[in-house]
Amino acid sequence: MTHQRPISFSIKQNVLNNDLEIKCKDGTILYGNRAILAARSEVFDRILFIRTSEISDKQVSFQKIEASVMKIILEYLYTGSISDGTLSTENAFETLNAADFFQLKNLQDQISEFYMKASQKEGNDNKSPELLSKAVQLMSLAANNGIIDFLVDSVARLPLDTITPDRLSFQALQCLLSKSNDENKIFVTSEYSILRIAILLSAKKVSQEAVTALEKRLPVWDKIKDGFDFKNNDISNIKDICVATADNLSPIIEFIDFRRINGKILVDIIEPLNLISSGKLLTVYRFHTYEKKHPSPFRGLKSHIKWDNNSCGPNLEISSDGCTVSRKVNPNVWNTVRTNYLMIEGIHKLRVKIENSNYTMIGICEEGINYSDYIGASLYGYCLYSEGFQYIKGSCENINSPRFGNVSSEVIVHLNMDDKTCEISVDGKENVVRWTNIPSKLYFAASLYNSGNVTIAKGN
Length: 460
Hints:
Elements (H helix, E strand, L loop, with lengths): L19 E4 L5 E4 L1 H7 L1 H9 L8 E3 L5 H13 L12 H10 L3 H14 L9 H11 L7 H11 L13 H9 L12 H14 L3 H8 L5 H4 L14 H15 L9 H8 L7 H13 L16 E6 L3 E3 L5 E4 L7 E5 L7 E9 L4 E6 L15 E5 L3 E4 L2 E4 L9 E9 L4 E6 L2 E8 L6 E6 L4 E4 L4
Parallel strand pairs: 1-3
Antiparallel strand pairs: 1-2, 4-7, 5-6, 6-17, 7-16, 8-13, 8-17, 9-10, 9-16, 10-11, 11-12, 13-14, 14-15
């Protein structure tokens, strides 16, 4: 419906020209002008002038709309917009439902924009956990709901270790995990961290004391991924807390893939808490014992794998999104860059596009590499050289591998940290090079000589 020019809006009791009472869900009475509301909303028009049986004298009742939300609807109908700061994580979904009821497409678009902005901010300013928690409370998960799917994707891009239990509800976590089983979609949190926040949210149902007690026994992923020595196995003083937490945790266990959690973490940290059934843990232990290839600690793609500005040679330049590294100048000297993600277990893949590069090296490295030189020169590096050579810890060998990079090439590094192997494919030709007995802590890395750029493909 085309809006007329804005009309000054103020919600005041019994103001002049207000000939309609609007009764809200909480019993609050608001006032409006019948002619204006009917002109601005086809729904109001039908209710006030067509389906007159729905109103009694001068009053219309909306049993599902709170007064705070109706005020936003009335402001929009009178002025064609809403004031800055009107929408919040507390009222956005109720307002969206009301805007849908009154068929206010432009207002729905404004609310969608609010979702997007609130879910793109950094750190605690990113409100997607709070919005998803509100959404699952008010909306049907059975419906094909684009808003919930959008918020699920937004939360999946946040490390859950950074989200405190008061920001994400238990039901929201269930929704997130039930909709995040696609390994080709982004999910940046390790499976251990998923279990950790599930336990804390379950403990929250018991008490804040329970949350505090279990937080002390559940280190965040960043503190244990480099190795840990955990000895606090005594739970005698929190036994009752663990029993109550286990009861609350049971509905979410089915959504957690325990195979992705390191066996040492399960034995030293999780098992002593008696939160998971012995049968479930025994099945996982058998899997770890008999299966050579273990799944990645992450259930989805890690969008946070990027070139690291803090681990980059001086003549290289990294794009603002962290995905492309290029020559800043052309001095005919080697420089190296590595990614920002340390790999210690599981299966990983880096797919890169190499363009207009005369000399390039792609591979893996440990800490200690010299970024003002090439990967192959280092005792801490393994790489495939674009001119047909491989380097292993400074030792060079001509293997006549396919050339790459002069125009445009795709190179894929397949890394299995469980069986300590690495394979590289070039332009669809698999296993061009294969290394075994590689180190236990590695980064992906690239070196450039005098031109070109190397771009991490979307979804790595």
